[in-house]
C-alpha cells in the first residue's frame, strides 16, 4: 500500500510517502501502531487524521495492499 504524509507530519518524518506491503488485511489502527513502532508515538497521536483512497477513515477501516492511505495532522486555526 502507498502511505502519504502531509503538512507538519511530512516535515517531521522527512519523507512524503512510502510503500508498505502487508500480508493480511489490517485496520488503520494496526497500521498506526506499526508506524508508531517505526517512527515514534509523537508523530501518530490519537487525533491524527487518516484518509483511505481519498475518503476519511476511522481506526476500524480495513486496509489492503491496493489502498492509498494518507495521514495528516488536525488543522487548527482561528
Count of spatially separate domains: 1
Structural class: alpha+beta
* CATH superfamily label: Beta-grasp domain
**Strand segment tally:** 7
InterPro entries: Beta-grasp_dom_sf, Mopterin_synth/thiamin_S_b, ThiS/MoaD-like
Pfam families: ThiS (PF02597)
Protein name: MoaD/ThiS family protein
Report on this structure.
Pfam families: ThiS. It comes from Candidatus Thiodubiliella endoseptemdiera. The chain has 78 residues and is an alpha+beta fold. The protein has two helices and seven strands. The relative contact order is 0.30. The model has no long low-confidence stretch (mean pLDDT 94).
Any key phrases for this structure?
Mopterin_synth/thiamin_S_b; single chain; 78 residues; Ubiquitin-like (UB roll); globular; two-stranded antiparallel sheet; MoaD/ThiS family protein; alpha+beta; five-stranded mixed sheet; 24% helix
What is the structure about, briefly put?
Helix content is 24%, strand content 28%.
Topology (SSEs and partners):
Layout: E1 2-5, H1 7-13, E2 17-19, E3 26-27, H2 28-39, E4 49-52, E5 55-56, E6 62-63, E7 68-72
Parallel strand pairs: 1-7
Antiparallel strand pairs: 1-2, 3-6, 4-5, 4-7
Pfam families: ThiS (PF02597)
Protein name: MoaD/ThiS family protein
Organism: Candidatus Thiodubiliella endoseptemdiera
Amino acid at each position: 500500500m502507498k502511505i502519504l504524509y502531509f503538512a507538519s507530519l511530512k516535515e517531521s518524518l522527512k519523507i512524503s510517502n512510502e510503500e508498505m506491503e502487508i500480508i493480511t488485511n489490517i485496520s488503520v489502527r494496526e497500521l498506526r501502531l506499526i508506524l508508531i513502532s517505526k517512527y515514534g508515538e509523537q508523530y501518530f497521536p490519537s487525533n491524527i487524521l487518516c484518509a483511505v483512497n481519498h475518503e476519511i477513515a476511522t481506526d476500524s477501516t480495513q486496509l489492503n495492499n491496493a489502498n492509498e492511505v494518507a495521514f495528516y495532522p488536525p488543522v487548527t486555526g482561528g
